[in-house]
Amino acid sequence: MGANFKFRIPDAAQRGAAMVDVIGAGALQSLIFNGKQATTEDHMIRVKKIAHAVYEMPDVDKQSEYYTEVIGLAPTDKSKDAVYLASTIDHHSVVLRKGSQAKCVRLGFQIGPDDDLGAFEKQIQGHGIKTQRRKDPEPTIADMVTFEDPKGTVMEVFKRDAFSGQRFATKGIVPHKLGHVAFFVTDVKRVTKFYCDVLGFRESDWMGDFFSFLRCGPDHHTINLMQIDANRHFHTAFELRDWAHLQTACDFLSLNGYKLIWGPGRHGIGHNLFAYHRAPNGLITELFAELDQVNEELGYFEPRPWHRDHPQKPKVWPKDPSAANLWGIMPPDEMMK
User: What are phi and psi of 245, to 5 degrees?
Assistant: First the structure.
């Protein structure tokens, strides 16, 4: 996340305003309207987890070294076209490919073990979206449906047929998992509606009408979308254990020549601890801990001492410094580069 209040962005809605105009309708979508929660329900097949992200960059070897030696992912496979890296269980959570510029080009999502991939593909096609079916496209993935989101990122949706089961790495920061990927977009309402109506995401929070936080599981957000004048990667986030893990990670980054861009701090939206730095490929990495967890049935986030609302429910946050960092330090201009 990030919101420099020098940005040229629309004025935010006031705290407590109705979310209906800002937040697109989604199946089984929780909404807050005049302080009350309402849901609508259907039987769509939803993605359940962000499984991996695929990046292109000119220097794959340097970025691979960063992920293995600094971040602490384990290399699981390498071909002439790709390097696969993971934390644990899944074969890969990050895939690196050679390209002319650094960018995130694909996102992988899992559906449930009892979900029908063919039925999911028909569901996508029902929105008028062209799909492709790919057999054995990547290690440990036997069948995959691919299609593009409105900003051109390819969605790779599959069922996990086999687990790799490798242990966590023993060197580097060693995050628990790939937590979320954030993007700048030119039409945040349209892209948000796609993720909710097509993939089954739910809106957790908004900052005004320009920054959405979307979930596909218990984590407060898996996808972030912030409106500016271009479609591009914002940051990729990895989950750490706790504050102590984040502190040692910041020291480890410093010892290896990586300076923080912003943080440490605690976001208001999502309430996670955070620290941002720039990877060798020029893209921003966030390390975070203590992200809000939703109780989907009750419609609020599990209570935490640092919450300002009791209970903490999905809402529209105003464009206020506390939404970006409860501890006070605002993001620098470099967060937008």
Answer: -65, -40
Residue whose entry in the numeric block shows the structure tokens 């102590």: 244
Cα separation, 286 vs 163, whole angstroms: 26
User: In terms of DSSP H, where are the helices of the chain?
Assistant: 60-65, 117-125, 188-197, 243-255, 321-324
Range among 8-12, 63-67, 74-78 rated most confident: 63-67
Domain that holds residue 283: 174-336
- Length of the chain (residues): 337
- Are 185 and 118 part of one and the same domain? no
Which pLDDT tens digit goes with each residue over 251-283? 999 999 999 999 999 999 999 999 999 999 999
Phi, psi torsion values for 167, nearest 5 degrees: -75, 160
273 plus 300 within the same structural domain: yes
The CATH number assigned to the domain holding 123 equals 3.10.180.10
Q: Look at residue 12 and tell me whether its pLDDT is greater than 70.
A: no
Tell me how far apart the alpha carbons of residues 94 and 326 are, in angstroms, rounded to a whole number.
30
DSSP codes of every residue in 147-178: EE-TTSPEEEEE-------PPPPSSS---SEE
86/73 Cα distance (integer angstroms): 5
The 3-class secondary structure across 253-309, one letter per residue, is HHHCCCCEEEEEEECCCCCCEEEEEECCCCCEEEEEECCCEEECCCCEECCCCCCCC
> Minimal CA–CA distance to 179: which of 216, 140, 226, 134?
216
Q: pLDDT tens digit string along 285-294?
A: 999 999 999 9
Q: Same domain, yes or no, for 221 and 284?
A: yes
Q: Are residues 311 and 231 in the same domain?
A: yes
Band of the pLDDT at 179, cuts 50, 70, 90? very high
Bigger pLDDT: 98 vs 88 = 98
